[in-house]
Design goal:
The protein is an alpha/beta fold and 173 residues long. It has 5 helices and 7 strands.
């Protein structure tokens, strides 16, 4: 799990090259030319994106990959339509609960990671210890509690170098 801090593309490329192929959940970026450039850059760096074309596509791909113990790249700081508003930097912000829902279904390791620009063309990748979550019988409470915890983890990453966070993701709208 990560956020738009430092250079996301450098992060997934480094992990794909040094540890294991990353399968990030992506959507098209900008124009078709820009999108093609990013897509082929990812492929060149060993990244295998999960594309969301039709409803349910991503979930089917994620399910198969998790069953094979593959690495999924998940950006915690993206809102989605109908997302609950949970605490984030002292305010309520739209929070995607998909990671908590997926974890509950598949019980996989969640490893926070971030990239920081050190200088032009040089980045530092930090992998944290896996998060420890518990599961109760109250599914809805677990999803909200875990998603709130993920927000806290992302806050800590951002606080380390707030100037490198993409604040334009308006989750407070």
């Amino acid at each position: 799990v990560s956020a738009h801090i430092g250079n996301w593309e450098a992060l997934i490329s480094a992990i794909s090259k040094e540890i294991s192929v990353v399968h990030p959940i992506v959507k098209p970026i900008g124009s078709s030319g820009t999108n093609n450039f990013v897509y082929f850059s990812r492929k060149k760096n060993g990244v295998e994106p999960i594309n969301r074309k039709n409803k349910g596509d991503a979930l089917r791909q994620i399910s198969k990959l998790l069953e094979q113990n593959k690495v999924i790249g998940y950006m915690m700081d993206q809102a989605r339509i109908g997302a609950p508003r949970l605490p984030f930097f002292g305010d309520l912000a739209e929070t995607n609960t998909s990671l908590a829902i997926l974890w509950r279904r598949y019980n996989f390791s969640i490893i926070p990671c971030a990239s920081r620009r050190i200088s032009f063309g040089h980045h530092e990748v930090e992998l944290k210890e896996p998060l420890h979550l518990d599961m109760t019988e109250n599914v809805k409470d677990d999803i909200v509690r875990h998603s709130t915890y993920f927000n806290q983890v992302v806050e800590k990453m951002i606080i380390q170098c707030p100037e490198q966070y993409l604040w334009m993701h308006n989750r407070w709208k």
